[in-house]
Amino acid sequence: MRLSVIGCGYLGAVHAAAMASIGHDVVGIDVDERKIASLSKGEAPFFEPGLPEILSEGIASGRLRFSTDMADAHGADVHFVGVGTPQQKDGYAADLTYVNAAIDGVIPYLRAGDLVAGKSTVPVGTAADLAARVSPTGATLVWNPEFLREGFAVKDTVDPDRLVAGVPSGEEGERAADILRQVYHPAIAKQTPFIVTDYATAELVKVAANAFLATKISFINAMAEIAEVTGADVTQLADAIGHDARIGRRFLGAGIGFGGGCLPKDIRAFSARAEELGRGESVGFLREVDAINLRRRDRAVELVVGAFGGSVFKKNITVLGAAFKPHSDDVRDSPALDVAVKLHGLGAWVTITDPEAIENARRIHPQLNYVAERDEALRGADGVILVTEWDEYRRDLSPEHAATLATGRVVVDGRNGLDAAAWRAAGWTYYGMGRP
Ligand code: UGA
Fold first, then answer.
1. Contact 93, 130 (CB under 8 A)
2. What is the pLDDT at residue 218?
């Protein structure tokens, strides 16, 4: 099939390359000339495992190209819209500027029978508004939310755990759903659940899923707060409740909490939208979820400060990690970077290392000291804090080796990712989050 993908950021670039990898003829469109130039050379503008390979293959096969000209969308059977919906600068609601621009931009190039498939995360009610604008062209709007995780984005796109399509009622909707089944043919052939529903449900599935995940993380972090005043160990608690199949162990990792370009802004936008709908109280708990999450960053700082008797002034603190999670170079609302900034603000001499995210971190916090090489960053440290659980730190860094580099013996485990017993045995004073 011929597809266009409007917006070549995280979501769009991966979607375009992944669709080419399953045999479609794809054009990715974005207003950012530098991004398009880089993608056209097969270079991913951000770190995502597996993306460079499918980009190069797609371009070499002739099935994948990129353009800054919206006219190149003309002739595609399906136009995916994957532009960003960031938090508004002066509030919690989502900023729909890019979605509106993408729809207005593509409308002149639509043919009757084309599909416009929205993938961006939007406030419920948006699709119905956009459909009214698209329908005079004879094209059909569908809402087809995306559930990919950064770091696993290629796999999640080609082989998702479910597909959701919000379609208009009647024959038009049935036809639209059939077209999407053809687009996602390998997943459909594998019997991947394909849920066909209305616009509002499709929009809500996306925000509900992210709200649930955020709530699960803040739930275990709330338990960590209780564990901290009772002497309990939240990691054992998570293991124990996680054995209940109804609860499950995944996303019960207590630590400095969630960040990134999705969970934080999505729960805020959801709250803002619910308030507009007169149902603010229905998701009032999301304010608590947000507050618990932000408190954990302060708690990590408190642990470091406490370890040094109440002041980190002029202490050399090595921060292991800057990305909001491993397998990503994304530092948007990164709890890791936030902790580093707070320690710097308290007068610590902070050295940050990260396998992938240093350049992005430096761009937004040029005042901090960055060292690419892990061991170099650890040299002379009075204390160490793990904030992004990359394998390089969690699995591959032995406490004995770290002791040959650092001067002090304080380690704070902001992700509960280290082997506490091993670090203690090697002479370190170990502090976990929600652990004795
Ligand atoms: C999230 C969702 O997981 C995806 O399903 C969704 O498609 C995506 O947002 C989106 O809306 O685009 P992502 O932001 O890539 O994906 O990251 P997650 O893997 O969900 O992690 C989010 C944050 O939670 C990270 O900072 C991570 O460190 C933290 N986290 C995760 C915890 O603190 N504890 C856990 O147990 C798990």
1. no
2. 99
Q: Cβ contacts of residue 116 below 8 Å, gap of 6+?
A: 78, 79, 81, 103, 106, 110, 130, 134, 139, 140, 141, 142
| Ligand 1 site, residue 252, Cβ cutoff 6 A | yes
pLDDT tens by residue, 124-150: 999 999 999 999 999 999 999 999 999
Q: Which SS3 state, helix, strand or coil, does residue 296 take?
A: helix
Distance (Å, whole) CA 337 – CA 370: 11
Residue with CA closest to ligand 1 atom 28: 325
- Architecture of domain 231-436 in CATH? 3-Layer(aba) Sandwich (3.40)
Whether 157 lines ligand 1, by a CB cut-off of 6 Å, is: no
The CATH classification number of 2-197 equals 3.40.50.720
Element (H, E) at 320: strand 316-320
Q: Taking the model in full, what pTM does it have?
A: 0.97
The single residue of 262, 292, 340, 385 carrying the catalytic annotation is: 262
The answer to whether the CB of 414 falls within 8 A of the CB of 385 is yes
Domain parsing of the chain, residue ranges: 2-197, 231-436
